[in-house]
């Protein structure tokens, strides 16, 4: 099974074709982190374990990114080709809030608390024409 090239492959794992976010969890106090980290800021422990955050969440807060972000953003877009996109905090089922792109940029379709699911979207094109993907959240297919 072949998976797409990812901008940040350490943030995603696959169950079949379904992407899941990967973070870490402190073995001492249970605090969950995204992205994964090697030490806990809550209890200062260094025994961290990989933790599957899943692929489902709900929209906690959002905005529309209306201008091309500054470096290190490297999508290959220019101010002329940039298209606004949604950005939100997604509360995962484990409770952690993850900042993410949203597949929806229409404010009439974004509602706090709406169910979302993880997907992959094209982020940039390599010099040889290959696509590189990043994670985003889209409205869930079913509630």
UniProtKB/TrEMBL annotation:
By its UniProt entry, which InterPro entries does this protein fall under? ChsH2_C, ChsH2_Znr, NA-bd_OB-fold, Thioester_dehydratase-like
What Pfam family is a match for this entry? zf-ChsH2
Q: Which UniProt keywords apply?
A: DNA-binding
**Which segments constitute the ChsH2 rubredoxin-like zinc ribbon domain?**
17-46
What are the ChsH2 C-terminal OB-fold domain coordinates in residue numbering? 52-119
Answer yes or no on keyword DNA-binding. yes
Q: Which molecular-function annotation in GO is an example for this chain?
A: DNA binding
Q: Which domain of life is it from?
A: Bacteria
- Which PANTHER family does this one have? BLR3430 PROTEIN
Name it. Answer: DNA-binding protein
